Amino acid sequence: MKQVFAALLSGLAFALMVPGVALAQDGPLRIEITEGVIEPLPYAVPDFVAESAGAQQLAQQIARVVADDLTGTGLFREVPREAHISQITSFGSPVQFADWKAINAQALVTGAVSEEGGRVVVKFRVWDVFAGTELGQGMQFAGTPEGWRRMAHKVADQVYSRITGESGYFDSRVVFVSESGPKDQRAKRLAVMDYDGANVQYLTGSNALVLAPRFSEDGQRVLYTSYETGMPRVHVLEVGTVQSRILQGQDGVMSFAPRFAPNGQTVVYSLTQGSNTDIWAMDIASGGTRQLTSAPSIETAPSYSPDGSQIVFESDRSGTQQLYVMSASGGEARRISFGQGRYSTPVWSPRGDMIAFTKQNAGRFHIGVMRTDGSEERLLTASFLDEGPTWAPNGRVIMFARETQGAQGSSSLYTVDISGRNLKRVRTPEGASDPSWGPLQ
Amino acid sequence: MHTGHYISGAAHGLLILWALFGGMFRGDPPEMEVADVSVISEAQFAAMMQPQLAPPTVDEPAALPQPEPETALPDTPVEDTQPVTQPEPAEPEVVEPDPVPEPVLPEPEPQVADDLPQPPTPEAVPDVQAPDVALRPTPRPAPRVAPEAVPEPAPEADVAPEVQDTVEQSDTAEPSEAEEQQATAPEAATTEIVTEAEEPARAPTASVRPQVRPNRPPQTQTQTAAAPAAPPEPEPEADAAAADATAAAIAGALEEALSGATTGSAEGPPLTQGERDGFRIAVQDCWVVDVGSQAANVTVTVGFDMDRDGRVVGSSLRMLAAEGGSGTAVETAFQAARRAILRCQGDGYSLPVEKYDQWRNVEMTFNPESMRVR
């Protein structure tokens, strides 16, 4: 009887606890969000404050270049200045966050420019509007008035880095082949420009055909292929002095498709002997060469991984052009591309996680990316002719050449985000092809 | 002797008689077939078998796989792996001299400011309830690039954080008390990426099925505890000590059940699924994911407190956990989550005040896995 009584009471106690369990919530409210939006982040860049008499125009120009850099990424959207409620009249005055919050600016860039004695000083701050705090600390750059664009790019790099957490790519240069004249008589010469197409400077004349320039890791040298001697030969050019020399001078042998190793001391290139093309490596200091592939097929377009341990290249050993990865010291290669069509011009990402390539399939050309093992292939573009991808220093953007169809077709440079968004043309004074993106300066 | 034995004996006897006299063990032996054979050598055997080893012939050979049709390729300036004829010397440019400018660009001297003055903390300004100036419409970034720019469409609504209808003063109608305002709407955004190389879907691949009506949530038995059964009277011979122990256990259970706060659990009815979804959607509309960044690999959990008006206590925002990515990517992911929570709260999230205890403390997990670029 005693047990029966205890069981009844226990049941009663359990019944009393049930409503409590139903009413109570164990801990805080937990919500999981798996869908967001893909849109540019709104920000505001009011004109920088001119802190000296002659710096008014410079202050406006620098602010515009900063805004163009950020907006050009496709990751940011500038809130028009006409919508600004607050005006920044002093670099040190407090920021009225409510005014910027009201126009939905999530980030705010304020700055000031002063010029004195041929020396320009640019200082800036980045603000998180909704948090009401500063992102990082204020910085300043100093330089000559002629270098104001570089200082603006440096400011934009800092803003980009503080908001995205990744390094920028605005203060970088691109070496490319500038093209002029009709398609059948096109003159080509090497040129270098800012990443956005500004400040174009020519490195070679147009008396010899030049192809495939490639920046070194430090941006001080450029490898390229020239027909100056009648045969394609690899040249190396010192950007500082604009002096070039033939790197591989063996008579009767064609060498092309050069690219620096990450250490800058080794060059890998293709060499044709008879009807066979293989990949070779050369030590620049000693001139010693080493053959990396020995297949009876055509191996070309080698590109090092960022750590210098592997090389990706294209080969037709399987019957069609496909991509292969091998050790930097040569040896057996592993095929990584298995899709339909032909793959060419692979380039390893500076991040090391992806490989960009040109793909030809069904009469169309594509720029695409894949993992280094060949998985997760994605095509980013499609046109009559897209080719020659090159990575931005932060591995976020790809620049390539696009040629239009027809006898009057011309080649231009384009950039595209690795997500496939924000495809846009880079303005150059003439036609352009074969871009190679240099490092962040 | 059973009858069965007689029957069995008779049956066996009949079977033996049939086997002996029925002709079962008689009969003519079958005739043997005799064939002539001849001895041949191994070479002769191989010669005889040779025609059988040949592959069977077919009337028509199978069609060979055709190679991939070569499309007319344009003249490409890529490295040609075939022998290349010597290019014709280019005509020297007469008008345009070979410009070889100074390649050395001016090097600014970047330096970190040592003594940039820290700006004073701005005065507390009450939050603006509605923007005074609606933004001018800006073209939405096109996912595809057209060869020619198209004219900008006429704006239908300005960009503003919140949706509001157009209010105009009419000449004929009675003057409205509402202040004249312009229609605004949040800027459109997308949750998926279509690259130039992909064809957008032009038709649904499957028909949409009507959604199943959600099941009603089970009704809570809130009255169970209201009328507890009367305890039976204890028997006189019951052990007093055992009865005290049982009574103490029951009292403890009752106290625990009736005071949920002592365990840290929130009181009151839980949020309905609709209320939770509304909260989730309100935040996710402001969660901007940079799908190509390293931060897109990070799942971050953010904890924060809220006041009764549904506003986030800004100082309570903190990162509770993060998974995937480097330290910088984690920090960027946290900042994006924090901005989403703060930006979309407006005048406060729409949550039932009577259930405040349920959403006083929130843990929100931002998982971008389904949006990541693959």
UniProtKB/TrEMBL annotation, chain A:
What Pfam families does UniProt report for this protein, alphabetically? PD40 (PF07676), TolB_N (PF04052)
The record's HAMAP family line, in alphabetical order, gives: TolB (MF_00671)
- In which domain of life is the source organism classified? Bacteria
Q: Which residues form the signal peptide?
A: 1-24
Which gene produces this protein?
tolB
Q: Which family does it belong to?
A: Belongs to the TolB family.
Q: What is this protein called?
A: Tol-Pal system protein TolB
Which InterPro entries does UniProt cross-reference here? 6-blade_b-propeller_TolB-like, Tol-Pal_TolB, TolB_N, WD40
Q: Which organism is it from?
A: Marivita hallyeonensis
Q: Which UniProt keywords apply?
A: Cell cycle, Cell division, Periplasm, Signal
Q: Name one GO biological process term.
A: cell division
Q: What start-end ranges are recorded for coiled-coil regions in this protein?
A: none
TrEMBL record, chain B:
- Which keywords does this Swiss-Prot/TrEMBL entry list? Cell cycle, Cell division
Biased composition regions of type Low complexity, renumbered to the chain = 181-194, 202-228
This protein's name: Cell division and transport-associated protein TolA
Region span, Disordered: 55-246
Q: Which Gene3D superfamilies match?
A: 3.30.1150.10
Which spans does this entry mark as compositional bias, Pro residues?
A: 98-109, 138-154
An example GO BP is: cell division
